[in-house]
Amino acid sequence: MPLVAPPTIPPSGRPTEDPAAALGPRRRLPARTVLWECLGVPALLLVIVSLLYGDVLHYAFMYDDGLDLARGESRSVVSLLTSGEGAFYYRPLPFLVWKGLYALLGRYDLFWFHLPPL
User: 6: which DSSP letter?
Assistant: First the structure.
């Protein structure tokens, strides 16, 4: 039994190796369909996520957030990347994002700190 599919025979009667060629020329999607796929679907998902989880942007910091924010603020970027000193876990990316947001904003703003995970 051969492992390669046999060539298809289009209506012209000549065999071809490409099955897509047997279907004829490709048709392009209408510009409206392409625009919907590129912009409409992501925009719709953004609206749905905003409706479902938008309240989270105004929630207070909880649990160990205060400890983690202070721990990240007191350490250098190199220290955050090389060790989990002072914590029971090693999470350099959240600490770097928090440190960057604090450097950019100059304060701990609930909205901007809760937006990236959303």
Answer: P
| 80: number of Cβ within 10 Å | 21
pTM greater than the 0.90 cutoff: no
Q: What is the largest CA-CA distance in the chain?
A: 76
User: Where exactly are the structural domains of the chain?
Assistant: 27-55, 59-114
Rounded distance, CA 34 to CA 41, Å? Answer: 10
Q: Give percent above pLDDT 90 in the chain.
A: 4
In the numeric block, the tokens 């207070």 are attached to 60
Q: Give the rounded distance of the alpha carbon of 115 from its chain centre.
A: 13
Distance CA 67, CA 75 (A): 13
